[in-house]
Amino acid sequence: MSRIGRLPVAVPSGVKVDLQGSRVLVKGPRGEMERVFSPDMSISMENGTINVTRASDEPRHRALHGTTRALIHNMIVGVSAGFTRTLEIEGVGYRAELSGKNLIIYVGYSHPVEFPPPTGISFDVDTKTRQIKVTGHDKEQVGQVAANIREIRPPEPYKGKGIHYLGERIRRKAGKSGKAAKK
């Protein structure tokens, strides 16, 4: 039995879950999400918890078991609490600001890079610490938008300049070493 798959998913108050076979619809204060799962997984709700069971011990069913449960859990956490991914900007003159809802990033190009938020995503910029917070109810979308922002100017290995995740460790390389003067 899958360690993750066998855990029940608790449904907090204020979140409504609608199960229609392999289709799951979750509504909460931060939005609503819908997903269709494999019909091989049976999803049931009883006493405010959701349980996922698999049809057999085939490798593909075992693989889907934990994944299905984790996706349902992420949907419930997303519509109730939401997800946040924090990015840091490092480099002289590098900064970010908000213009309405759009994110404007200045990272050494000849022009500022404007990044409009997709639906369901919001940005928060702290100019003092040069941090960008990407917030939303869909964990996959939050991660993808954060990766797209990081891709604008990924951190370089010599000075560490660029956009990186908060807490990300950047492998540094040694720079050029000058030749010793010949005598």
Explain the overall architecture:
There is one protein chain. This protein has 183 residues and is an alpha+beta fold. Helix content is 20%, strand content 37%. It is built from 2 helices and 13 strands, in the order ββββββαββββββαβ. The chain has helices at residues 59-80, 139-152; strands at 9-10, 16-20, 23-28, 31-36, 41-46, 49-54, 83-90, 95-99, 102-106, 113-115, 121-126, 131-136, 162-165. A 4-stranded antiparallel beta sheet has the order 11-12-7-13, with helices on one face. Strands 1-6-5 form a 3-stranded antiparallel beta sheet. It has a 3-stranded antiparallel beta sheet with strand order 2-3-4, covered by helices on one side. Strand 5 and strand 6 (49-54) form a beta hairpin. 22% of the residues are buried.
CATH superfamily name of the largest domain?
Answer: Ribosomal protein L6
Number of strands: 13
| Unreliable residue stretches | none
Helical content (DSSP H or I, runs of 4+): 10-25%
**Number of helices, where a helix is a run of at least 4 consecutive DSSP H or I residues:** 2
The shape, in one word, is elongated
Measured between the Cα atoms of the first and last residue, the distance is 73 Å
The averaged pLDDT comes out at 92
Please give the domain count. 2
If you consult CATH, what is the topology of the largest domain? Outer Surface Protein A, domain 3
**CATH architecture classification of the largest domain:** Alpha-Beta Complex
What's the alpha carbon Rg, rounded to whole Å? 22 Å
CATH C-level class of the largest domain is Alpha Beta
What characterizes the major β-sheet?
Answer: 4 strands, antiparallel
